[in-house]
Amino acid sequence: MFFKTRREPLKLKIFKSLNARDELVEKDVSYYRSLQKGYEGEKIFDKWLVDEGLPSNFPILNDLLFEVQNTKFQIDSSLISSDTLYLFEVKNFDGDYVIKGDQWYSLSGTEIKNPLHQLKRSETLFRKLLQEFGFNLQVKAYLVFVNPDFLLYQAPLKEPIIFPSQLKRFLGKLNTNTLPLRNRHSKLPEKLLANHLIESPYSQLPSYSYEKLEKGILCGSCNSFLGRKSRSKVICELCGVTEDVDSAVLRSIEEFRLLFPEEKITTSTIKDWCKIIDSSKMLRRILKENFKLVRYSNYSYYIDER
Fold this sequence. Notes:
Blueprint: E1 2-4, H1 10-21, H2 26-51, E2 60-68, E3 71-80, E4 84-91, E5 95-100, E6 103-106, E7 111-112, H3 115-133, E8 138-145, E9 150-153, E10 161-162, H4 164-177, H5 188-195, E11 226-228, E12 233-236, E13 242-244, H6 245-259, H7 267-274, H8 280-290, E14 292-296, E15 299-303
Parallel strand pairs: 1-2, 4-8, 5-9, 8-10
Antiparallel strand pairs: 2-3, 3-4, 5-6, 6-7, 11-12, 12-13, 14-15
């Protein structure tokens, strides 16, 4: 059971938008691709957990962020059983790599961070966190590679590494040999969620401004710009996806709010942002049906009804 499901990170959504609307420098494009690839790998791992039919009474929590002794650490995925808490660090590496001593390299000779160091650091901090909570569970941490095009030479046999060809077997053993959560640990998932930190997505972003971003509605499928098909439909000329105008506009409004959280939502602003919707009357209707109108003197804007 996914006690905390995985959602596309807000930072990734911001980078996806900026990559389509602006010209990012090479280092920002590289960072964006790294975020995207990592998220895709985590979704692959989630699908494997579902496909292997883990019992619904095994709580699975994704994307947890904690702070212990002034040190933050993130857990890609965790699974709680009766006596063990399993931590999974998921990597979507592709290509050939080699280990030399304690260092990891691509075969081209580029050194990368040893992911086992990050895994062991998270494992140590998580044990301290459980002690603070008063739970007596052993912690087992694994480094999981999900990409079948990944190959690691000279991998140490005793390290907790799971390769794609081993994952089905590993999850099968976990399913067979692990008992469901006991009553005395039933409060642990809620305790973990209560202490999960929400990190701002606005750190490590490239600078951007409304004026410099290309306007228009992005395709929800391929992230290219949509065109008008009819009064009620928009179409992506690149991938062929057709969408109702209302849903496309609402998705674009959410994108605008994510990029510019301090800006007011007005009919004129959204008309300029969406670009291809030339009817103020239509936009006003969509806004009124989905947001609350706030009148301030001669100035009106929209806010969430929630």
